[in-house]
Amino acid sequence: MSVMSGLSVTPVLFKAACPDCRCRFELAAGALRLAIGASRRTTFYSFTCPECGSAVRKPAGERIVELLTGGGVRTLRLHTTG
After folding, report:
1. Which residues have CB under 8 Å from 44's CB, separation 6+?
2. How many angstroms separate the CA atoms of 12 and 4, rounded?
3. At 49, phi and psi to the nearest 5?
4. Range of lowest pLDDT (7-16, 27-36, 62-71)
């Protein structure tokens, strides 16, 4: 293991909002989950609102998927059974 001096790593934060309590906040990558399905309807991200505790699920288009995966959000690939 090597350590580089002089470098600092800034955690990635994502802006989000709760549709229930309408609170706006920033979440670290670890607070979000991304599910990638076979269609737009089955591709979404989710998180728990830090203010009211509601489970939030929102659709994720291509750009959102790109940003979340690039920022280190854990991703689940959904598979269909045929």
Report:
1. 34, 35, 37, 57, 58, 59, 60
2. 20
3. -65, 125
4. 7-16
